[in-house]
Amino acid sequence: MRITNQIITNTLLKNVGRQQEDLDEIQHQIGTSFKYRRPSDEPASVVNGVYFKNRLHELEQFNRNIYDGKSRLNQMDGVLESVTDILQRVRVLTVQAANGTLQGDKGFELEEAIGREIDEHLKALVELANARDATGKFIFGGFTVDKKPFEVIETREKGLKGLTLKDQIVGVEYRGDIGEQIREIDKGEYIGVTLAGNRVFWATNMSLTSPKDMTEYTATSDQKIRIDGVEISISVGDTLDDIIDKINTSPIQVRAIKLGNNNISLTTTSPHQIWLEDMEGGTVLRDLGLIEVGASEPPGNYSRTATVAGLSIFDVLIQLRNDLTAKDQERIGGKDLGDIDLALENILRYRSEIGARTNRLDNHEKRIAFDKTFMTELLANNEGVDLAEAVMNLKWLESVHNYALNVGARIIRPTLLDFLK
């Protein structure tokens, strides 16, 4: 093979050019800390990098969701702690009233002194039940966050010992719904961060009994009913027994029974207000005599002929205040004291649930922090540059480039034309 000076020169320039490209590439990597300039340089790394970045963005959002959820749960726990303190104080007063241990204290009779304090505690409970979050939204109204979940019914009338109690509360009605706000804390993993007020601020089990004889009843079409937010399908031809069986096998804290007159009665298995709805134009619950035809939205849609039993925490305090007015010590020390204990038990149950959810969020927050660290490391390894290694490679390329130039200068000898110049 004939090797000419032109071939040597071209080969040298080609090698030097390639080395300069390598020098430019390593300098770019050091300057930007990225392994590649364009997606076409490392297609697989680009795809992995997009996944790692998306995952990091997801983890950041999940972290914000966890923080928001913990804030809401902590606020609810603080409110329920205050409710617990009030109910414990009311219990002490109830025991004293039942025993008559404060009679004659500072010239006030027992019923008057305790009755006035119970009335103030009742007002405080309503204020706590209508608590707002940092954005001004009500926290115990379910999805209804822009209006007070609990509305008081007041009256001016003579109270204890003939004294007028200004704006005396005679009833408290729930105006929220049973929705539960949730937060996504990982892909497909959710947690509730609110509690409906008609569950938390309830004291005793509730029952709703229809007076209608349903011996001959059969469903005339396929329909759906909703109890406490759970849909139950009713098929054409279903009898009262079939409907009762479907209710009792549904995942709800309500049980249905058939009474002696072939009428239906619904009873809760844990204290809360029963939420009833006929779905998509159905009439099953109306036909059974449980809800009113043309009535408003739950919970104000119970049939006027149905028998409703069950007390909210507010009802318990109103009942206690009224029994103090009547000086009924037997009811004060019996039913009233028992209902206060049930109210306390229900509040403590939900405080325990809030604590369990908070612990779950704490544990998940630690997992999110680990995942973020792991993903950040993977992203750095995928597209980042090891600066120490890059600098070492740069020095090596510079040395090789200099050696190539020196060797080329020695190999390319002067030609005849150089001597003729």
Characterization of this structure:
The chain has 421 residues and is an alpha+beta fold. The chain folds into 2 domains: 52-201 and 311-371, f41 fragment of flagellin, N-terminal domain; 207-309, Alpha-Beta Plaits (2-Layer Sandwich), CATH 3.30.70. Helices cover 52% and strands 14% of the residues. The protein has helices at residues 5-32, 43-99, 110-129, 197-200, 240-248, 284-287, 313-326, 329-383, 387-411, 416-420; strands spanning 150-158, 164-174, 182-186, 189-192, 207-209, 223-227, 230-234, 254-258, 264-268, 276-279, 307-309. The strands form 4 sheets. The protein has a 4-stranded antiparallel β-sheet with strand order 8-9-5-11. Helix 1 packs antiparallel against helix 9, helix 2 runs antiparallel to helix 8 and helix 7 runs antiparallel to helix 8 (329-383). It is elongated, with a radius of gyration of 38 Å. The model has no long low-confidence stretch (mean pLDDT 85).
